[in-house]
Each structure stands twice: as C-alpha cells, then as structure tokens.
Specification:
alpha/beta, Glucose Oxidase, domain 1, four-stranded parallel β-sheet, 12% strand, globular, binds FE2/S2 (inorganic) cluster
C-alpha cells in the first residue's frame, strides 16, 4: 500500500530463517498481512513516575485506532520518560540519555513511522531529538495541559504560584498550613503544567516547528478533542510513511525561524532555547544563539499567560490557541516552512480567529512590545547568556551592583538567609557551578530565592546571574545559561564578592567591571572548583565528559547530527 519500500520489510519479507523469526515472534494472533503494512511505533513516555504524562496511555489507544483505520500496524513502545518534579538531581541531566535511548529503540526495531507522545518538560525535546537523528516519519502528540485549578476563588498556575506562595510563606504573609492546602487545587487534573512553562512552551513550539498536527498543541489533557486529534494523528502518520515525509524533508532553518517567532509571541520558556538548539544540532541545521535574538527579540508577546501575564493554558486554548497567535504575526513567519501535513504552516492560519483578545492580544496592543529572548555577551559571558525581558523587572534591565557570589546551590542555601549576609536590593546575586558540566545537568536554580531580610523589606526582584537554567514557570530579572559555564573555564568562575557587575539588556551586555589584565590573572578559588561535579562512573561520568555548553544546546558531542535509520549490522 505504500509508495516507498517499507523499512520494516528488512525484517519481515521473504522466507529466510530470520524473517520467519521476526514474524513468528510478533505474530501472536496477527493476520498475515499485518507485516505488509506500515509499522508505526507509538513512543509513549507515560509512567506512574511521569505524572504529567500518565494519561498518554489512553491517548496511545486513540492513536492506535487511527493507525489501524488507515491500514497501518500500531505498536506501542514505552520509552524513557522524565517526571520533571520527581527526577533528581535534575531532569535535564537525563534529557540526552532519554533521547539516546529513544533513538536507539527506534532504529533497532522494525518500524516505519513514529508517533511521539510527550508532555512533561523534557519529554517532547528528547522525542524530537531522537526522531531527528533517526530520521523516520514522525509526528508529535502533545499530552496537553491540566485544567485550571482554583484555591479560595483564585486560579493557581502550576509552578509560578508555587514560587509566589512559597515566597509569601517566607515573607510571613501566608501560613504553612494554607500553603499545603493548595496542593491539590494546583494540580487539578491530568496533564502537564498549565502555565507558559517549559511543557506548554515545547508543545506549542513543536507545533510551530511543524511536527504536530496544526491546531492540536495546547488542547487540555482532559478535553475529548485531544483523543480525536490523536486518532487523526494515527491516520496521518501512515500517510507520512507512504509519502516518505521524514523530519529531514520538512524541518529546515525556516521551521526553526518560525519556532523562534512563536516562542517570542507566546512569551515562552527560556528552556526552549536550549532544546531548539539541540534539536537543530541533530538535523545539522546551523542554528545559533544569536538567531534567537535576531529573529525573536523584536517580536511582541501576545499571549497573556502566567508567568509573564494573567491567564492559563485552558484560556489560551479557548481563545484560539497557537494558530490564532501565529495569525497575528503571520508577516513574521517564513511561508516556506512545511509541517507534518505536507502543507506550509502558514496555510493553516487562514481560519484561526482570536476568540478572546484579553488572552491573545492584538498585535497593536501586545502584552510586551519586544518580548523574545535577549542574548547577552560581555566579559562575563563570552559565549552568550540569555535573559527573558517579559519575565524581568523593567527597572532592572539596566543595572550596576555589587556581586554576592555563591559557589554552589548548597552554598547558596546555607548563606542566603543569614541576617549578616552583606546584601542589599542593588546587589547582584551570582550562582556558579550550575552549568551542564558543573552540577551536572544544568538545573533550574538560576531564579534564586531572594534573601529573607530583603523580602521582608518588600524587595521582590533582584538581578541574578547563573550558568544554570530557570524554570519556565519562574519570573525575575535573571541572566542565565551563562556560557562557558564556570566548570568549563568560563569567567564566571573568577568573579569575587564585591566586584561590580553591570547589566545592560538594551546594549546586550553583561560584564564584571574588572579590567582584562586582572581578570586574566585570577584563578578560580579552591572552594569554587571543589563544588564542580566529578562523577566517577555511569551516565553522569559519560555526560560530564561529553556534554556541550548551553549556547549549542547542551547535547553530547557525539550525539550531534543524524545517523539515519539504518542499523549497523543485521542480526544473524
Ligand atoms: Fe510536568 Fe511541569 S512538572 S510539566
């Protein structure tokens, strides 16, 4: 039935012993013609320990029906999932391992096409990295956000309101009992975080890239339309196999340019920068950190969602979803970029009205005029660093202050609330040893909690600088992803408490006001280097030895590029 020779026939066709073995063990009641059909792996990141994705098993059943209906053979394939809130020390340490496991599972098995079921933060990025490397026809079904929960009449945004409420507890304006009482209100239903955090961002960005059926991303996990779309996706992937529509045939630089526009217009998570760079790296597309600033920084934020705004993902879906957002910035999109449907992304914008202009602002009245990611450079970040103006305080976008330096997150926690800590509202908090190699895994710690004594004085934001990441649900004037990181020889390792740090977002600068000669003469202190990770074995060792810096996506050096779908040796 397929226009192209199915890859799976390498396993199943013929009457030799190996074909017999491959068929016989898979048969288990399947009819003879099951092996002549496109074999579709439904890569499922669901597990009890990935609570945001647990419902994907039901979604997989809908995909399975769609694959069957279109004449394919569906095969559910559990793959490595990562529960963002559960996995220690940080899910980012395991993103590349998950991507590698998925890639090898896709390549090693007799499959012709892939449906990728993800949701929680690292799951869609790792699925896309794997699919890009193995280059089989692939389409993502994002699991969708959870429904809006309310606590005492007020909607709660996952993550963002945890930070807000916990700071209120620290400031003494909320009781610990009430804080605990809000837990089940915050996590009201199946699905991933409902703010514009990393999961929501990556689902929407995956659609802007062209890897999701247009209009699907952002459908709430509890919405029956998700199952309908999953069924349709199952049908579509069979068509994609017939058309040989592989990632390398439709994911281009233009697709990434559109994803960057979308990232800015939705006010998305800074984590998307690292993930998009990593996915592009798998495709051999020369995407750079500067592309995010060049393409995205002038794009207005139109979506009024937490943490930058007021609403939540359910509201965005009701208001028209990503396609309605993209309709507002259509002139900024590259019309040549294609999607899994085989049609350009812009073709899907003709009938995508905005139903609620409070949630999706019109272009003439944006939430933030220039809202994309700003890329900073300077003697503190020669390889670049990022800041998200939409989540920052306008009065801190140009700032000078004395550095208060912490060598590790443990050092930070030990000293930040010390009443004798020499810190004031103008200080710049510097946290190092939190990059890909130093921690390891580049944890989401850059949005350091403020010193208790300053919170009690009413201070709600300070400039913070870190080589780690920040949760997509967090906010604040945070300079993050500093590259090279301290543990990779970056100058961040050389900053001392009391040095003056200057931030100028408009000029795209982040500098320490120490002259070049003195900076060059400094060496990191023993306390600084002692905090860097030195794993002896296992994945952490492999990771630290091979991880690249944030400015290229923090992938492993030997995982960049595509190896295609060909297995290295046939079995005998
Ligand atoms: Fe899973 Fe936020 S913890 S999406």
């Amino acid at each position: 039935m397929s226009a192209v020779a199915l890859r799976s026939t390498q396993w199943y066709s013929g009457d030799v012993r190996n074909a017999y073995i491959h068929r016989a063990w898979m048969r288990r009641g399947a009819p003879d013609d099951a092996f002549d059909r496109p074999q579709i792996a439904i890569a499922n990141t669901a597990s009890d320990l990935v609570p945001c994705n647990r419902h994907l098993t039901e979604v997989a059943a809908a995909v399975r029906d769609g694959v069957h209906a279109a004449g394919g053979t569906p095969l559910e394939l559990p793959v490595m999932g990562l529960g963002e809130t559960q996995v220690r020390p940080t899910a980012m340490l395991w993103r590349n391992l998950a991507a590698m496991q998925m890639e090898e599972a896709f390549r090693a098995n007799p499959v012709d096409g892939l449906v990728l079921l993800g949701g929680c933060d690292k799951t869609i990025p790792s699925l896309l990295m794997a699919a890009a490397s193995v280059d089989l026809p692939a389409v993502v079904v994002p699991g969708g956000p959870m429904l809006t929960g309310t606590f005492r009449g007020v909607p709660l945004g996952c993550g963002t309101d945890v930070f807000r409420l916990s700071e209120e507890v620290r400031a003494g304006t909320l009781s610990a009992e009430d804080f605990t009482r809000s837990e089940s209100a915050m996590i009201r239903s199946r699905g991933h975080c409902n703010t514009m955090g990393t999961a929501s961002t990556m689902a929407l960005v995956a659609e802007a890239l062209g890897t999701v059926v247009p209009g699907l991303a952002g459908t709430p996990a509890a919405d029956s339309r998700l199952l309908e779309a999953a069924h349709g996706t199952g049908r579509l992937v069979v068509e994609m196999v017939a058309a040989d529509r592989r990632p390398s045939t439709f994911l281009t630089r233009a697709s990434f340019a559109n994803a960057i526009v979308a990232l800015a217009a939705i006010g998305g998570s800074t984590n998307a920068v690292v993930h998009l760079l990593a996915i592009a790296g798998r495709l051999g597309i020369d995407l750079t950190l500067d592309d995010f600033d060049r393409i995205g920084s002038g794009v207005p934020v139109l979506v009024d969602l937490l943490p930058a705004g007021r609403f939540l993902m359910e509201d965005l879906h009701r208001a028209g979803g990503l396609l309605a957002v993209l309709g507002e910035v259509r002139d900024l999109l590259d019309p040549s970029a294609l999607t899994v449907t085989g049609r350009p992304l812009v073709d899907h914008l003709d009938d995508a009205p905005v139903w609620d202009p409070e949630v999706i602002r019109p272009r003439r009245a944006p939430l933030v005029d220039h809202g994309g990611i700003a890329v900073l450079r300077g003697n503190l970040a020669p390889g670049g660093a990022v800041v998200k103006p939409a989540a920052a305080s306008p009065h801190l976008m140009r700032h000078r202050g004395r550095a208060v330096v912490f060598d590790s997150i443990e050092d930070f926690h030990a000293r930040i609330d010390d009443p004798d800590l020499d810190v004031d509202a103008d200080s710049v908090l510097v946290l190092r040893g939190c990059g890909p190699r130093g921690y390891p895994g580049m944890p989401e710690v850059a949005n350091m909690p403020l010193p208790r004594k300053l919170l009690e004085q009413g201070v709600r934001d300070m400039v913070r600088v870190c080589d780690g990441r920040m949760s997509g649900t967090a906010y604040g004037t945070v300079v993050l992803h500093v590259a090279p990181e301290a543990a990779a020889g970056g100058p961040l390792a050389l900053v001392r408490t009391g040095d003056v740090i200057s931030l100028d977002v408009a000029a795209r600068r982040i500098d320490v006001e120490v002259d070049d000669a003195e900076l060059a003469a400094r060496t990191p202190s023993e306390a600084t280097t002692a905090a860097f990770a030195r794993p002896a074995r296992g994945w952490e060792r492999l990771y630290v030895d091979h991880v690249l810096q944030a400015d290229t996506g923090a992938d492993l050096d030997f995982l960049r590029g595509s190896s295609g779908s060909q297995v290295s040796r046939e079995s005998h």
